Structure formats: structure tokens, C-alpha cells
Amino acid sequence: MRGLLLRWLGLLVFVAVLGGVFLNLGEWQLRRLDERRVGNDIIVAHESQAPRPYGEVFTRPITDADQWQRVTATGTFDARHQLQVRYRSNAGKVGSEVLTPLRTTAGDVLLVSRGFLIRTGMAEPPPDAMPPPPTGQVTIVGYVRRNENGSGAAVTPAEGAVRLVNSESIAAWLGEPVTNGYVTALTVDPPQAGELVPIRPPELSEGPHFWYAVQWFMFLSMAVTGLVVFIRGDIVKRRRERAAPVPAGEVG
Q1: CA separation for the pair 174, 110 (Å, rounded)
Q2: pTM of the model
Q3: Correct CATH for 51-189 of 2.40.50, 1.10.150, 3.30.420, 2.60.120
């Protein structure tokens, strides 16, 4: 019996550890679902609002709650400091964004992603293949975006390209203050050249998070059920062995 107890104890510890992992993964997916719902509500609320002057929104560090508002800004693009934002995706396509500082009429430097260039080959095109911005004064309407964070190599411009858009790192590269966050352009007036398409907001769906959570909770249930079945099988086997008649030759 002692051997069975030790085996059951080992199984119990194993299932407890495995079950804890499954439980945490299921709860994590439910948290992701809540975050997705909050994000959807923010996008819907902002889409119902008219575009605002960028100076009314970019008064502090941009957060998730600020994203996907529409703003307007007027100024002149700084073509000399244009950057290719590499390895991006948009509406299921892969390609690059074209990030150009806008020197606004208010005297700010506002980073503007002028659009998305779909990749046509296997490799990313070079930065100098990105379409140039319009010259002269322009007015843009676009979505508010927060800074992206990553390793130093990902946020620091090099050879005309960058991996993530971080206004603080780009400010250090430019050597002058830059407005926190950035804007993804919906329209540019006068219109810009090149096959640039606007960046779309995230899809308004709840994603697969609920069913992933159900999956992990099912794995937890299966682990607990398996433990019960295994122990019950041991008990039934032991009872049968005890109830089995002793052969006559072994009596005495």
C-alpha cells in the first residue's frame, strides 16, 4: 500500500503543477479578451468623434486610451529625415511604413507615418525606394498612435530605417525635441505620390481568446479526471487482488 500512496502522491504533485499552468494560461487568455474588448470600445468611441487639432491631444505622453483618435495637423514634411519602418503588417499584408517628420505651423516636430507600402518581393526594398513626401505646406488627418517600445537596436534609426516607432529615440537621433507618440495618416492634402495605403485600425473582433481559454480549462479538467481515473483503477485492481481466491496449493 505504501508504494501506491507514493505513486498517487507523485501523480497528485504532477497534476497540480500541470493544472496550475493550464489554469494560468486560461486566465491569461481571459485577460487578453478583456483587453481586446476595452480596445474595441476605445476605437468605436473615437471613430464617432470628429478629427481634433493635434495640439489638443498631444499634450502629454500618449497612452493606449488615446490611440485611434483622429487629429489634424498642418506643416511641412522634413524629407531629409524620412525613415523606412521595416517589417510591418497592415490588413494581412507585409511591407514598410514611411515615417516622415512634419514640422507643424505651431513649431512642433510631429512624426507622421504617411502610409504603408506593400512588399512585392521576398526582401524589403531599400529606404531610398520609399516615395518622397509632398513639398510645401500640407494638412494631414490621421490616427493618434503611442510610442512603440523595444530594444535599443529596434527603436534607433540606422541607415535610413528603423524597426519600431519611438519618438524619444527619434528625437535623440534628430537632435531636437519631438512630440510624444506619432500619427498614421489617413489623408494628406495636397495628395501624396506613391502607392501608399493608410494604416487600418485593429479588427473589431474578440479574437480567439475565449476559445483558447476554454481549451486550457478543458486540459485542466482532463488532467484532474485522468488523476481520478488512474487512482480509482489502482483501488479497483487492489480490491480484486484481495478478493481473488487463494490456490489450494498455497494454503498453509
Answers
A1: 12
A2: 0.71
A3: 2.40.50
